[in-house]
Specification:
By secondary structure, the protein is mainly alpha-helical. It is built from six helices and no strands.
Length: 167
Amino acid sequence: AIRMLEEYAKTHRLQIHDEAMLMFTLSESYKLKGDEENRKRCLLVSSINDLKSPIREYSALRELAVMLYRDGDIDRAYTCIKLCMEDASICNARLRIVEVLDLFPVINDTYQQEKEAQQKKLKVMLCIILALSLCLSAGIYYMYKQMKRLALARRQVVEANDKLKQV
C-alpha cells in the first residue's frame, strides 16, 4: 500500500484536499508498519494541506498533535490541538469536538504546567538579576568612595610635600 500510494502521489497531480487525504492514508500505512518518522512527515504534509483547504477536517492535525505530545513538543502539540478545537467549535462539528475533547485536556494541562514552570524560572532569574544588580551597585558605590578617599589622600600628600619643600 505504501509503495502504491507514494507512486500515485508522484505520478498524479492532486487537489489540495485530495493530497491531504492521500497523505493521511499513507501516514496510517506507516503507522501500521511502525515507521514513525515517515508517519510524521506524511501527517505534516497532510496537516499543511488541510489548513490550506477550505474543508476544515483536521484528522491529520489531531494525530500530529498526539505525536508531538508523545515526543515532548508540548508547545506545538498545544497549538495543533487548540486549532482543531477552535475550528470544530466554529463549524459546530460535534463528532470532531468529542474527538478533540479526549485529547485537549491532557495536552492543555501539560502545556499550562510547562508555562507555569517557565514563569517560576523567569521569576527566579529576575530575582538573581536583581540581586546581582544590587551587588554591582554596591561595588560601584564602594569604588566611588575609595576613589574619593584616594583623591583626598593624594591632596594631603601633595600638601605635605609642599610643606616639606618650604621647610
